[in-house]
Amino acid sequence: MKTQIAYHIPMPKRKYELPETKEPFRDRLIRFRKTAGLSQKEFAQNVGISPRMAAYYETETQHPPTHLLAVFAKVLGVSTDQLLGLEKVTNKNRPRDTSLWRRFTQVEKLSLKERKKIVDLLDAFLGKNKE
Asked: So where are the chain's domains?
């Protein structure tokens, strides 16, 4: 019977350089959540976690939950690279205030007369803030 000798040849380790970011994950998570117009409770409901866990991810931990990372990104309207700080968010790919856009969608369903009243109100408000 022939004996086989197994040799262990270690694979060279690759070193990946990640860009340094001064903003911790939790701060980016809070910023993206607020930009999306979501409260902590709304964010937790959309992700499918408890509000207590959402608060934990925003205050207690510096490490993102890898099993929820893709869900976080989808709910916030950003890529996982942006959420991790690997890619900057530009105006082109900046998340929208989803609560505001939801309201605009509801306004579109109103009658023409009701929409005109809302447009007049918005014009008056925006004109007042221009000064």
From this structure: 20-96, 97-131
**E strands, 2-121, in order:** none
The b-or-e profile of 31-44 (16+ CB within 10 A means b, else e) is ebbebbbbebebbb
Which pLDDT belongs to residue 16? 59
What does the alpha-carbon distance between residue 17 and residue 12 come to, in Å, rounded to a whole number?
16
- Joined together, the tokens standing for residue 129 give 């803030």
4-8, 34-38, 125-129 — which is least confidently predicted?
Answer: 4-8
pTM: 0.59
Q: What is the pLDDT of residues 50-69, one digit of tens each?
A: 999 999 999 988 888 899 99
The closest of 90, 91, 43, 40 to 68, measured between CA atoms, is 43
Domain 20-96 belongs in CATH node 3.10.20.30:
no
